[in-house]
Amino acid sequence: MSDAEFVDEAGELLSRIERLHGNERIAAACRGSANPAALRWLVEALELGPGRIVADLGAGLGGPAEWIRSVAGCRVVAADPSPTAVAGARRLFGLDSVQSTAASAPFVDGTFDAVLLLGVLSVVDARAAVLREASRIGGSVGVLDYCSASSETSCVGGSRFPTPTDVTAELSSMWGQVRSVRIDEPTPPSWSRAADRAHAGIPTPRSERDVIEAIEAGRLVAHAFVGR
Q1: Bridge partners, residue 138, by sequence
Q2: Hey, is 49 helix, strand or coil?
Q3: Contact (CB, 8 A) for 149 and 218
Q4: CA 20 to CA 25: how far, in whole Å?
Q5: Cβ neighbours of residue 64 under 8 Å, at least 6 residues apart?
Q6: Which member of 42, 74, 137, 223 lies 3.0 to 4.6 Å from 142 by CB, making a disulfide possible if both were Cys?
Q7: Sign for the pseudo-dihedral over CA of 6, 59, 103, 167
């Protein structure tokens, strides 16, 4: 796909999501990165609420950030390396959004009560660098990602999916207390329908199809983690 085609498709997706409202808009902007059960567990485990400030690194279009903001009443700042995603998070939800990578965030030390890494650790080259950055800018961390169901890292669709044990060990090296849970509750049908409508006719990259196949085959399983 050419750069021009990518921009056109991204613009079309944003326009479609903009025509949705409420939870449908959030659901469409969450596709592949989160579901309500996982997000609610993170909100409760991180004790998020009014007066708290949260950074969502790798926030994409801001669907999870908006869900957490609306449910917990906290302030969420979205950061993403894609200018299209940053603009989309602002357009769709009015989020405070900045362009940056997860390993180099433009925030001073200790700015946030919590940092979210949703679907990030499996796609970055250096997980340790991202976790160090999260520990620099935030007091706690919430991680949501698919993990390998085997005893070794699974390489699928160009991403590297660590085992839950690996993630727990990496978080434990930077945060004293780590909690985790396997996310077995499926995405609500209403969320899936909203996402499917928004993405209908927009080609799914081969890498994403490979990951979906691995999830459906049980080789990848969603887990959430909190380090405090």
Answers
A1: 112
A2: coil
A3: yes
A4: 5
A5: 30, 33, 34, 39, 56, 116, 118
A6: 42
A7: negative
Asked whether the beta carbons of 99 and 81 are under 8 A apart, the reply is: yes
pLDDT recorded at residue 225: 98
Helix or strand holding residue 223 (H, E): strand 220-227
How many other CB atoms sit within 10 Å of the CB of residue 182?
11
Can you give the pTM of this predicted structure? 0.93
- For residue 153, the surrounding DSSP H or E stretch is none
* Residue corresponding to tokens 């935030």: 138
Smallest Cα–Cα separation from 144: which of 35, 53, 228, 62?
Answer: 35
Q: Where are the alpha helices (H) located in the chain, listed in sequence order?
A: 3-18, 22-29, 36-46, 63-72, 83-93, 127-137, 164-172, 189-199, 206-216
Return mean pLDDT, the chain.
Answer: 92
Q: Is pLDDT at 122 greater than 90 in this prediction? A: yes
Residues 170, 95, 70, 123: is their CA dihedral positive or negative?
negative
Q: How many CB atoms lie within 10 A of CB 104?
A: 11
Percent of the chain whose predicted confidence (pLDDT) is above 90:
80
Say what the pLDDT of residue 9 is: 61
Q: How confident is the model at residue 201 (pLDDT cuts 50, 70, 90)?
A: confident
Which tokens belong to 133? 């950055």
Among residues 113, 34, 21, the alpha carbon closest in space to that of 73 is found at 113
| Cα–Cα distances in angstroms (integers) from residue 86 to residues 80, 141, 202, 203, in the given order | 6, 21, 20, 22
pLDDT tops 80 at residue 8: no
